[in-house]
Write a structure and sequence with these properties.
CATH architecture of the largest domain: 3-Layer(aba) Sandwich
Helix content: 40-55%
CATH topology of the largest domain: Rossmann fold
Oligomer: single chain
CATH superfamily of the largest domain: Response regulator
Structural class: alpha/beta
Number of domains: 2
Distance between the termini: 46 Å
Number of helices: 9
Length: 222
């Protein structure tokens, strides 16, 4: 009888309960399966479980937005994902989080490369079950929202690159153009040129940045 060790990490108990229910349904469908479940509501407890050499997890489900650890070493689910990659390399990693913006999510995909990625806003019990079953079979799983985001990014990659996305993200957070060089390794003149090119690409007047941010959000880049 196959037994899978699963770690569920989310600061909302209802989300953990949803995962536990999905695991129970999977077990009911195939009574040869058995799941051993651990859970954590914050980075401190999750890090301890991930670092436990006596427990090898087959599946780790993580939220990205989590209360940081007391020692300040782990401040997010992304930090825990990196830890899991190092300390539990055999584990399949499933990210389930709220969609903040395309730039941050796509960067998480690049840095962590999880086996699965779900956006909470378009996740339901059937999707949870499908994602877990796919990962346990050695497959990958991306939610519909993420698939659309990745497709859009590929389509516009020749016009909007990662540095452009970073500029858009910083502007959307209220960072003035003159201060953007403090946040990325580009000169002010290069940033101004990229903004002008993006405004041309989005077919908007070369006016204030508010319209640029609105159009980027409308097109799904933020």
């Amino acid at each position: 009888m196959p037994k899978y060790n699963v770690l569920l990490v989310d600061d909302h108990p209802m989300i953990i309960a949803g995962f536990e229910q999905a695991l129970e349904i999977i077990k009911e469908r195939d009574d040869t399966l058995k799941f051993s479940k651990d859970s954590a509501l914050n980075c401190t407890d999750a890090a301890k479980k991930i670092l436990n050499e006596d427990k090898k997890y087959d599946l780790i489900c993580l939220d990205l937005s989590l209360p940081g650890s007391k020692d300040g070493e782990y401040n997010s689910g992304e930090d825990l994902a990196k830890l899991a990659k190092k300390s539990q390399p055999q584990a399949k990693l499933l990210i389930c989080t709220m969609l903040e913006n395309n730039y941050k999510v796509l960067n998480v995909l690049r840095r962590i490369d999880p086996n699965g990625f779900l956006v909470k806003s378009d996740t339901n019990p059937d999707i949870l079950i499908a994602a877990i079953e796919s990962l346990l079979k050695g497959q990958t799983y991306h939610s519909t929202t993420l698939q659309k985001m990745m497709k859009r990014t590929i389509e516009f990659a020749h016009n909007i690159n990662e540095e452009d996305l970073r500029i858009l993200y910083l502007i959307s957070k209220g960072i003035l153009t003159k201060n953007i060089p403090d946040h990325m390794d580009l000169s002010l003149s290069t940033i101004e040129k990229r903004k002008k090119q993006m405004k041309s690409f989005f077919d908007i007047p070369n006016t204030n940045d508010k319209i640029l941010v609105e159009k980027a959000k409308e097109k799904g880049f933020l």
